[in-house]
Design goal:
about 100 residues; 2 domains; 3-stranded antiparallel beta sheet; 3 strands
Length: about 100
């Protein structure tokens, strides 16, 4: 069986089950390259959480969160009269807790 030229037309005219491994490999590589090329990049907007959301996420109370902030274990960002926490702040605090 002749190996099809994938650069011209990556889609075979015969069924996949009748092809050999050497024939299927370039076809799948072309499909994967096509899928990667058409994939949209992930949304990289930063995510911010309120104090209440952080307490629910970490399963701690508001006074405990306040204590962690006073000790510098977790840092927040004050926006107006709100304190918001980024995902990076949470990850940093969790790795510091794991190391202690």
């Amino acid at each position: 069986m002749k190996t099809p030229d994938v650069s011209k037309n990556p889609y075979p005219s015969e069924p996949l089950y009748s092809l050999t491994l050497e024939t299927i490999e370039p076809i799948f590589k072309a499909w994967i390259k096509e899928a990667i090329a058409t994939e949209k990049p992930a949304d990289t907007k930063p995510v911010f959480y309120s104090r209440y959301e952080i307490c629910k996420l970490l399963k701690i109370s508001l006074p405990t969160l306040g204590r962690y902030m006073d000790l510098g274990i977790i840092t927040g960002h004050k926006v107006g009269n709100r304190i918001l926490f980024s995902q990076d702040d949470i990850n940093k605090a969790l790795t510091e807790i794991n190391r202690a």
